[in-house]
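Usage

Read records sequentially. Each one opens with the input sequence:
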Amino acid sequence: MDKDLQRCIDLLKENDDDLRKSAENVLLSICQNILYRPNDKQYRKVRLDDDVVIEKLLPTVGAMECLFDVGFIEAADCLVLPKETSLLKLKALHNSVAKSLGMTTYVANNIDNYNLMPKCSTPEEKRFFTSILGNFHYVLQYEDPALQEKARKLIPITELEIATMSRIREIQKRIKLREANLDKHVKERLSESDIDTKDLFIMELMHWFKYKFFTWMDNPKCSACFGDSEHYQDVASEDPKCSRIEIHRCTNCQALIKFPRYTDPEPLLTLRRGRCGEWTNVFTLFCRALGYDARLVHDVTDHIWTEVWSMQEKRWIHVDPCEDVMDRPLMYEKGWKKKLVYIIAFSKDEVQDVTWRYTCDQLSVMQRRNICSESILLQFIESLNKHRQCSRDYSAFRREYVIKRRLSELVETIRMPEEQNSNDKSNETYEERSSGSLAWRLARGEVTEPSPETSYTWDISTYGETFHMYYSIIKDVYKVTDIDGKVQLELCGWQSGVNSMKGGIFRKVENDWKMVYLARSPGEISGQLKWNFEVKDPNLCVSTFSLQAWVRVFYGAKVTWQIEAFFNDTDPSKPLVFPIKNCGNYRTDYLKGSIKLVLTATVFGSQGDSAWQHSQLFRQSLGSEEDRSLIINIQLKKR
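and closes with the structure output:
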């Protein structure tokens, strides 16, 4: 390092730790902004009247000296780094400060890539290419050995290996049963040789990551009163590990809560919360720490996930840790209804445009891809890959392996349009997005409003004189069983057993609190569900009715229950109505002789933007092993 710069850095060390670290964070941000965007004039200016400069740099011995030594000069009310100034000293300052703060220095080590930037005709095109450059540098942080070691220590590898082996044994049993039942002339599609332990381990890792390690964060809880909050504003962050800070306001006590959006995975290993960016950031690090070839996949319509290279299948496999979904690349287009444009994958080896893996409507996507020409994008990607793979520390063996892997991917891409438009693919069903609040997903257009159209009626006389039904909110399934517990009927989805609903009732999964329940939609004053039970056998009628239902209410919200009874000899428009005061343990024989029952649950009350979730039907912990959120027993008798 240059002696003069070393002298300035030594001066920094003479300050107390808090003052030094504060100044080093500002210096690091200045260096990174310039190294990320060396041709952008706005990042080469440091305003002297800026509060950060006044409060962080000026009081710190050596801070301003560092800026002057790397080439900044005074100009009116600011310092400017002239365009012709070499960035070597700036890079050295960046590396030294990053080391002092315990950070990696991959960004500064790749500034030469910016010479590969194509000429841009529009600001949008420049932003697009700059983001590709930034992400290509960004993924190198996953290669830090110390960071990988921290990540590995957090993964319950033995537990996941046991779960993987259990899954393998279950698959083997199914294969053997299938082989025993198959005609000898029929070739089985799956054999034991097709089972790959590493691919199945990723499934277990992803499931553990979603349900036991990381939590989704819509709006943080108030640290003062533990109430709900809503987004207020975003502010810039001085911490180079953090892209920005969201400020949320408590809807109860009006306190302000900070939610830093970290881009560095290291603090996220401790915080373990965020949205898709934070989720995929840490999950991709975990994959790399375990030795998988993994890459970060960025959809410019605003989502991020991971791809993992399968040695067994010789292809990249889609993995979305937010959704606990693997190998369902058409999920975003078919399930979330996304209008895809550019989907770019970034690994330590290469950048690739992988859009075509995620769409079966290539023509529409091509019509939307208008930021830059396809040839310029392809040339830019190829130049970045060549630069990375021809660098001094890149091995010839690795280069040969990556080239072969890329050829396999190209062959898959050629076959993809035909396969994705095949009958088998078109008949698949794809779920809408599950992560994030309903309001947030609706605003992004990734789900549709819950449909109020449902009209199921339970014929309780089908099962003899005893009808026993329960609903599990965790598994989201209804089951009718006999007196021995044998399942006689199973309906998947809470809507499948409901006769009618109002208020946009939906199933809410709180991954941060590990809870699940039914609630009315945001903005709705109330919500209502009705279940119909009929005795269609003319020789039977109701004798007794019992109900057990789990509910929770907060902040003055309410859940009310009632049952309407219809009799043969009464006006069908005027049923007898019985309010249910204790839904946790209700039993009555007042319904004796009825032939139709309508059970109604109504959720309402509370105030504020979060009032919709203050009255919760069937609330249960996701970790509950035996969940019977709703239990209904109806005893029948002969007329």
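Summary fields computed downstream for this record:
- Confidence is low (pLDDT under 50) at residues 183-190, 423-427.
- The first strand starts at residue 45 and ends at 47.
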